[in-house]
Amino acid sequence: MTTHTDSDRQSAFTKYLRRLVLRSDLTAGEQAAIATLPGEFTEIGPQRDMVSPGRTMNYACLVVTGLAARFDQLANGQRQFTALHIPGDMCDLHSVPAPVAGWGIQALTSTLYLKVPHLALRALIDNHPALALAFWRDTIVDASILSKWISALGRRSAEARLAHLLCEVAIRLEQSGEGTRRQFRLRATQIHIADFLGISTVHVSRSLQSLRARGLVEVQDYTYLLPDFPALAHFAEFDPTYLLLNEPSVHEPT
Amino acid sequence: MTTHTDSDRQSAFTKYLRRLVLRSDLTAGEQAAIATLPGEFTEIGPQRDMVSPGRTMNYACLVVTGLAARFDQLANGQRQFTALHIPGDMCDLHSVPAPVAGWGIQALTSTLYLKVPHLALRALIDNHPALALAFWRDTIVDASILSKWISALGRRSAEARLAHLLCEVAIRLEQSGEGTRRQFRLRATQIHIADFLGISTVHVSRSLQSLRARGLVEVQDYTYLLPDFPALAHFAEFDPTYLLLNEPSVHEPT
DNA sequence: GAACGCGCATTACCTTTGTTATGACCAGGG
DNA sequence: CCCTGGTCATAACAAAGGTAATGCGCGTTC
User: Fold this and answer.
1) Residue A247: what pLDDT?
2) Contact: A102, B148; criterion CB under 8 Å
3) Across B122-143, average pLDDT
4) What is the pTM of this model?
5) Which of B135, B140, B137 lies closest to B116, judged by CA?
6) Does B229 touch chain A if contact means CB atoms closer than 8 Å?
7) Distances (CA, A) of B72 to A158, B51, B79
8) Interval B21-75: pLDDT, tens
9) Most exposed among A30, A174, A207, B249, judged by the fewest C-beta atoms under 10 Å?
């Protein structure tokens, strides 16, 4: 069991800050206020639930290392993932204004995260009104991804959905400095991917084979290589606008 | 062409206010500030786009009468609806912090709506910080519906999705005073419903026949009768929690 | 080092949903 | 009064994806 210092905490919030300032201009004071937020470090094993559906939350979860997924659960126990959270993501910021969880959050790998008290976040908003806007915008990024995902689930083939997911992950990991759009590590099993795509594990395997055969994707030990990102993006009809990055660099082919 | 007075405008905003106060406590001053927002009345015919994808917005759309749908469009022109907007809904409140539309909005019937300038909404937030929270929460309701819709699209049969959509519409229309959960009017064609459910129109017809055969739904001239709402809700695994209404009454069977 | 569990691939078969086409009905316009 | 276009139902067939089962490789554990 590692112990975590204040400086670990501060560097975790800096990671989140990097995500925020991609979309909002914040003053030095506002940035400092975020960097010094309180939060309790928590570690959890793979396949365990960080948040179980139906709970009333009094903190939000900031992923520090690892991988987590928001999910909705059916009566028969089947899960559908509705969001993927990489390090630097605040999983359930929306729980601040809406604390009754309709969702659950599952760790896909061993995951280290911070429990950030709602009280502290609310105080932050009261003292820095501009941060309310930034948080609101952060929620909108989330909603924008949900929205794009609906059209993928409703109208695209399983293979196209898989390609789209890989494109999105590639860009998001690149943005957060955890890899490049050409090569990155995604420690999610095919069971997890099935829960994202809304298909069976058998069909994940089939679809992945198909993308391999097209020469668009190579995988080894959870490390993905996209030899021709623009071609994959074209195949997936992936347009990163919905990630609200406003960075022209993102739109250029590598 | 009807002309619209200030009092028409004020009553339109009161409708929106009703939606807001379902989820947020607002002071009289805050409520008055919303009721006196500016906005330009606009009328549009069925199947026309109120917002075309990719535009940069400087106003948000408040539906006064009619029916509208947010959509995402594929390269081949196929549409997937991502949200349904009934009178009293602010379709694209999220355009205030994120003005570049990744979405489009289509009128399903003849629709009257207000173009509410972003400038006015931003000024409102500056003067009444509590409203930032209320708007944020309103966005979260939207996201929560998106999220639920993802799990329906990913994991439920077409028939169950249709049932779920009808349950949601029943509750939302009841809340906004446009009908009851037992009987309401929904002027959407089967083409529209197909665009919501992510299926073909043929399959909408099939699924509806199937719900009819089960005795769960009757339709005549776009008027839906749900003879046994709890049974339909059970079939659809519909739990209204995700609408964030916090009203115990909603959870009681009729 | 044998037994076990997990993740992945693959096959055979079955179910759900899409596609294409047709006809009925109805409202509106010349 | 007929023609036209939109909406809905239905049928026959095709394609996408689900289910169940098996085998393989690999790391863990005792």
Assistant:
1) 52
2) yes
3) 95
4) 0.94
5) B135
6) no
7) 18, 11, 6
8) 999 999 999 999 999 999 999 999 999 999 999 999 999 999 999 999 999 999 9
9) B249
Of A133, A146, A241, the CB nearest to B146: A146
Q: Do residue B133 and residue A132 have CB atoms under 8 angstroms apart?
A: yes
| Token reading at A228 | 């021709």
Q: Which of A139, A141, A151 lies at the smallest CB-CB distance from B80?
A: A151
Contact of A18 with A136, CB cutoff 8 Å: no
3 state SS for chain A:
CCCCCHHHHHHHHHHHHHHHHCCCCCCHHHHHHHHCCCCEEEEECCCCEEECCCCECCEEEEEEECCEEEEEECCCCCEEEEEEECCCCECCHHHCCCCECCCEEEECCCEEEEEEEHHHHHHHHHHCHHHHHHHHHHHHHHHHHHHHHHHHHHHCCHHHHHHHHHHHHHHHHHHCCCECCCEEECCCCHHHHHHHHCCCHHHHHHHHHHHHHCCCCEEECCEEECCCHHHHHHHHCCCHHHHCCCCHHHHCCC
Judge whether B46 is closer than 8 Å to chain A, CB to CB: no
Amino acid at B248: P
- Kindly determine whether residue B82 and residue A150, on different chains, have CB atoms separated by under 8 Å: yes
Interface residues 154-193 of A with strand D (CB < 7 Å) = 157-159
- Which secondary-structure segment (H or E) carries B230? helix B229-236
**pLDDT per residue over A60-83, tens digit each?**
999 999 999 999 999 988 999 999
> Residues of A with CB below 8 A from B148's CB?
72, 102
Nucleotides of C under 7 A from a protein CB: 6-12, 16-21
Nearest partner of B83 among B114, B51, B56, B127, judged by Cα: B51
